[in-house]
Design brief:
single chain, 303 residues, alpha+beta, 2 domains, five-stranded mixed beta sheet, 8 helices, 30% strand, globular, binds zinc ion
């Protein structure tokens, strides 16, 4: 038995069925309200979760808007080309080591937040997200799961012109526009769900299934990514690892997101996040398709 930790109004809440429980209040003040501080209290959250049957819920989930369960991660990593079928559709070889880039933490937003698009070439990438639960440095592969607090769903929203505009391409900015990192709906602790068990990931845009793949297709799994990253830098509680997206992304078919589109991303056992796309002002590169993006699209289409 583990816990489901969400966040609303700046406070950490435990989710049970259709209800939520304010952690600070439900623990009679023993646990902090800030969801970032709660990540280091996983044992206490598990204990409190087991006692919820005798505690009055704070309210109904339907009555509140959830924020990102991890609202202020210190670092937010993402992995490119980490599903075999996505590498194949991109016409690229399987990477020999994880291809790591940054989604700057300022892009992280809630599970139902709007995506504020600033070009006509914005794409979806449904992803399983791992959340670090304790400080990790030089972690051995066999110990890596001990450093995971839990899992949630994420969308690695990508502005393809910005992603491919420099030469060689540098992904960080194109993946980090404000609002381009919705996560949620809750952090599901790894007592509830084993990251090594295959889970189906599905992305729908306006009800049409665009991605549907098992996490079994991951090239570098979550324990490997934690061990690998921790050999290079220190991972801290709340750090996010977007583990990569399966095949089906829009760029391959030239079908990008449009104003008003609804993206629903679900993962077995983790629920669903739902985000509306809103087209706002252009960014400076919005009207140009960089040659590197044209080449990437041609490469994918010629695969
Ligand atoms: Zn991605």
């Amino acid at each position: 038995m583990g816990f489901k930790l969400a966040s609303t109004g700046g406070k950490g809440v435990l989710v049970a069925g259709d209800h939520y429980f304010d952690v600070h209040a439900a623990s009679a003040g023993r646990l902090p309200a800030d969801p970032m501080l709660l990540l280091e209290q996983t044992k206490a959250l598990t204990l409190l979760s087991s006692q919820l049957g005798s505690i009055e819920p704070t309210g109904q989930l339907d009555d509140v808007t959830l924020d990102a369960p991890i609202p202020r991660p210190r670092n937010s990593f993402a992995i490119g080309l980490n599903y075999r079928n996505h590498a194949v559709e991109a016409g690229l070889p399987i990477p020999p080591a994880p291809m790591v880039f940054t989604k700057y933490p300022s892009c992280i937003t809630g599970p139902t937040a709007n995506i504020e698009m600033r070009s006509d070439y914005v794409d979806f990438e449904g992803e399983l997200v791992a959340v670090i639960g304790k400080t990790a440095k030089n972690v051995a592969l066999e110990d890596a799961l001990d450093y995971i607090a839990g899992l949630c769903i994420g969308q690695d929203i990508s502005d393809r012109p910005a992603q491919f505009t420099s030469a060689p391409p540098q992904f960080n900015l194109g993946k980090s526009f404000d609002t381009y990192g919705p996560i949620g709906p809750a952090l599901i602790s790894i007592d509830e769900i084993n990251p090594n068990d295959p889970m189906m990931l599905t992305t729908e845009v306006n009800g049409e299934i665009r991605q549907h793949e098992s996490t079994r297709d991951l090239i570098f799994d979550i324990p490997y990514l934690v061990a690998y990253l921790s050999q290079i830098l220190t991972l801290y509680p709340g750090d996010l690892i977007f583990t990569g997206t399966p095949g089906g992304v829009g760029v391959v078919e030239g079908r990008f997101l449009k104003d008003g589109d609804i993206i629903k991303t679900s993962i077995e056992g983790l629920g669903m996040i739902e985000n509306r796309c809103v087209r706002i002002s252009d960014h400076s590169r919005a009207t140009e398709i960089p040659d590197a993006l044209k080449a990437a699209m041609a490469n994918a289409q010629a695969k």
